């Protein structure tokens, strides 16, 4: 997969899935039960290493992704964080300068060092040919959770804060740019072969705000990371970005690859950006739940559309907990022929 990130077309398309370690796997649910809560799982290297490796053992994917969460960054800045069963994340809110100033300037080493220890151990235990991905959330997406304290349908609270108090919002984004860059550098130095920046809420921004709050912070992170790790391989996943937005992001940031969600028109995207970066994606996670001939047809269409491109197979977003394992096996068999 590293060669594809370097722009080469692979004879055998590398495969991995967003959220490949998760509740659709019984072995994940077993460790999750043992650990108690989700954050304990993230901060206990033994557990984090184990669940990262589970999908590699079971499916032989070409990449492993560190088991953690994008909200570990605000947590290590001092935000209170919990995950309620079936309800998603709950955070103490950061809505103004006073609340931002009460947070740390750097990431609490007592939290982050446990994650970096897991990265090193995963790299040691993985087969050499399996790529290890680190990650962080893009500043925009992380800020949406920090401002609202939770996920909302269109992350209106953060969009409103960026309009009513742009100076505060800029300071929040700046804090996240600096700390996220340091976090990614730490992961790369600990053994990650590449890193992915998840901008899961990029799609709720108008074009000008997308430039300011999504592209520009990602561009700064890429520059800060490459200043320390010049050959760092970086993937951006701006979920919901338009073709124009995706193209602008590729040109402005210099990432090695872009992740595509399932709504993206593949051939146009190839024409617009395919020569400059590798493309990663983009099977609809619901097609993987449906399975059967719908799955076969969708996989075939995707393979045809990306034929001859530097392409990494993935889903257009994370795999859902209700996905049957047999459908994942069927998808891999279809891809591998
Ligand atoms: C927005 C976002 C989050 N986290 C993440 C994103 C960006 C990608 C995306 O858009 O999905 C990223 C993430 N979260 C998780 C990973 C691990 C690596 C992987 O396998 O991809 C990664 C890369 C584990 C997780 N993160 C979470 C779980 C479920 C926790 C559990 O076991 O109960 C997992 C496996 C919890 C989480 N974490 C987050 C939410 C909204 C939730 C609740 C929703 C849900 O439960 O799926 C925030």
Automatic annotation (TrEMBL):
Q: Which InterPro entries match?
A: UROD/MetE-like_sf (IPR038071), Uroporphyrinogen_deCO2ase_HemE (IPR006361), Uroporphyrinogen_deCOase (IPR000257)
| The protein's enzyme class | lyase
Q: Which GO terms describe its cellular component?
A: cytosol
Pathway per its UniProt entry is: Porphyrin-containing compound metabolism; protoporphyrin-IX biosynthesis; coproporphyrinogen-III from 5-aminolevulinate: step 4/4
EC id: 4.1.1.37
Annotated site (Transition state stabilizer), which positions?
Answer: 69
Q: Which Gene Ontology biological process is one annotated for this entry?
A: protoporphyrinogen IX biosynthetic process from glutamate
Which residues does the UniProt record annotate as the domain Uroporphyrinogen decarboxylase (URO-D)?
14-23, 133-149
Please give the catalytic activity noted in the UniProt record.
uroporphyrinogen III + 4 H(+) = coproporphyrinogen III + 4 CO2
User: Record keywords: Cytoplasm included?
Assistant: yes
Q: Name one Pfam family in it.
A: URO-D
Q: Which domain of life is it from?
A: Bacteria
Role summary: Catalyzes the decarboxylation of four acetate groups of uroporphyrinogen-III to yield coproporphyrinogen-III.
What family does the entry list?
A: Belongs to the uroporphyrinogen decarboxylase family.
Q: What's the subunit arrangement here?
A: Homodimer.
Q: What is this protein called?
A: Uroporphyrinogen decarboxylase
Q: Which organism is the protein's source?
A: Ancylobacter tetraedralis
Q: Output the lineage of the source organism.
A: Bacteria, Pseudomonadati, Pseudomonadota, Alphaproteobacteria, Hyphomicrobiales
